[in-house]
Amino acid sequence: MLTRRQILTAATASPLIGAPAILHAQSWFAGYPFALGVSSGDPAPDGFVIWTKLAPRPFEPHGGMPMVPLPVKWEVASDERFKTIVAAGEATARPELGHSVHVEVTGLQADRPYWYRFSLGSDQSMRGRARTLPLASSSPASLKFGVAGCQNYEDGYYTAFRHLAREDDLAFVYHYGDFIYEYKQRGPDYDKDGLPVEQVRHHIGQDCFDVADYRLRYAQYLSDYDLQAARAKHTWFPTFDDHEVENNWVGDFAGKGTAPADIFRLRRQAGLQVWYEYMPVRAAMLPRNGIITDMYREARFGDLLSIDFLDTRSFRTDQPCGDGFKPYCPGIDDSKAQVISPEEENWLTRNLTRRQAKWNCLGQQVMMMSLDRRRYADEKEKIYNLDTWAAYGAQRSRLLAKMRGLDNVIVLTGDEHQNYAGLLDNGDKAVAVEFVSTSISSGGDGSDLRAGSDMMLKNNPELKFINDQRGYLICEVTPDAWTTQFRVMDQVSSPGGAISTRASLTVPRGQPSINIA
Questions:
Q1: Residue 70 backbone dihedrals phi, psi, to 5 degrees
Q2: Is the pLDDT of residue 354 over 60?
Q3: Of 15, 185, 188, 281, which residue has the fewest beta carbons closer than 10 angstroms?
């Protein structure tokens, strides 16, 4: 048998010649190379991206891989038993990208499921399932998809992802971000009696600052088989929010404000590189000059639905008034402040006003409703969340004005760790409906209503529903109505939590309003 030294020497001398030796011996010296699973994403009518990452020892430097490029075989089949292979090839897993593999599969039929897998030598990955989009010229009778995000590993188990994997007939899952949390292991929480209690699970490693830190954190999160199951079963549209880099970062501004812009850009570059490495996205989203310029993008589902996935972090101006939950300050009305860049705003406006689909949807990260956040009787002044669109009044007003008269706009949001549903109004009338999805685990078990929820409902007539449990959304769309189910967990602090539908809310097309079942 070849020794490890002989294998690495051969690979170093000529990586592609040495690769077969590594492939045959891979499991001997490193273990199962597909320990972090498979995923598919960014579908089109003729294909999608399939992803995997070679990491036989995920928590070791470089995932336990030799620092050489390796050829990985891939197959796509029209049946789950792989009797009919419709596409196949070989992709190179490069050490510069953590031995991740992103294959952009094309030439497939529209609006149908496929199955895919990878192999390295004698090792084969788990089987994944993906789905293509319908043709832009088609008229689908219905569409069903999921919405999820915010999954702090320390706060709870990912049982909600296991339930999401079991949801049938989902065309895709929109992940709004906060795939990881960048914090080191934190101190204890406290129970209702003020006594310390241990976290559900613990982060390994320090606060994330460089590529190695972020890779270790993603590896820990993806070691969870409930998360792997949801990624393998459904095709994803991933976006990022703040915790993929640092809490509440925007543009060149560090979230904590402690690093100068040129230094923070290095951390942002590391975080976004590793986000790309772990997500099933196209090569166009590889960070360039420290930023992902093409994160915002559109998906069409025939003439039924057009979704615009936004980037609300990369080009945002700094939060006014020093960020946080605070009373009004003049910075909220700054005419030059922006959540999205002028280019992204023009792109979004064009898409919204084309009238090519029965429904327009914005998939984005931070709440668009401008809510009064007061929860206690001694809070006299109206309180704003300055990390949301509420703190960027001028651009928010421009976008809502563009929605006026369309009567078919749905906004999907995350970040809040609670479920919300409400109306977006442009001064004197509702122009859109916003559904805010709760977290998968962030915030722990929660309860039906957080303290002060009754005051929030009273102070915000546009707010129609609020809930403080963990879970995800299931959206069902037809030409006449949009229905969102708020699927919630009874608990996430222990494995095996049960899922149920807390509420089902329907929006009739042509009338921005909410009917609660």
A1: -130, 140
A2: yes
A3: 188
Per residue in 195-227, pLDDT (tens digit) is 998 889 999 999 999 999 999 999 999 999 999
Q: Is residue 506 part of a domain?
A: yes
Half-sphere exposure of 119 (CA within 13 A, CB side): 12
- The C-alpha angle 264, 266, 270, rounded to 5 degrees, equals 120
Interaxial angle between packed helices 225-233 and 211-222, expressed in degrees from 0 to 180 and rounded to the nearest 10: 80
- CB contact at 8 A, 431 and 514: no
Residue 125 and residue 191 share a domain: no
State whether 170 and 308 are in the same domain: yes
Which of 102, 131, 160 corresponds to the end of one domain?
Answer: 131
Considering the domain boundaries, does residue 404 fall inside one? Answer: yes
Domain count, the chain: 2
Note whether 220 and 125 are same-domain residues. no
Q: Do 377 and 459 belong to one domain?
A: yes
**Mind listing the pLDDT tens digit for each residue in 106-133?**
999 999 999 999 999 999 999 999 999 9
CA angle 135, 46, 139 (to 5 degrees): 10
> Based on the domain organization, do 358 and 472 belong to the same domain?
yes
Q: Which helix (H) or strand (E) holds 426?
A: none
The radius of gyration of the chain from alpha carbons, rounded to an integer in Å, stands at 23
The whole domain housing 246 covers 143-516
Tell me the mean pLDDT in the region 87-93.
98
Q: Is the pLDDT of residue 440 over 80?
A: yes
Taking only the tens place, the pLDDT of each residue in 287-334 is 999 999 999 999 999 999 999 999 999 999 999 999 999 999 999 999
Residue 189: predicted pLDDT: 84
CB-CB neighbours of 355 under 10 Å? 10
| Distances 63 to 21, 122, 514 between C-alpha atoms, Å | 19, 19, 48
- Residue 475, CA distances (Å) to 4, 45, 309 in order: 51, 20, 16
The whole model's pTM is what? 0.94
484 and 377 assigned to the same domain = yes
CATH label of the domain that carries residue 49: 2.60.40.380
189 contacts: CB under 8 Å, gap ≥ 6: 196, 197, 199, 444
Question: In this structure, is residue 494 part of a structural domain?
Answer: yes
Same domain, 259 and 390: yes
Q: What is the pLDDT of residues 247-268, one digit of tens each?
A: 999 999 999 878 999 999 999 9
Q: Report the chain's mean pLDDT, rounded to a whole number.
A: 93
Whether 378 is in a domain gets the answer yes
Exposure string for 98-109, b = 16+ CB within 10 A, e = fewer: bbbbbbebeebe
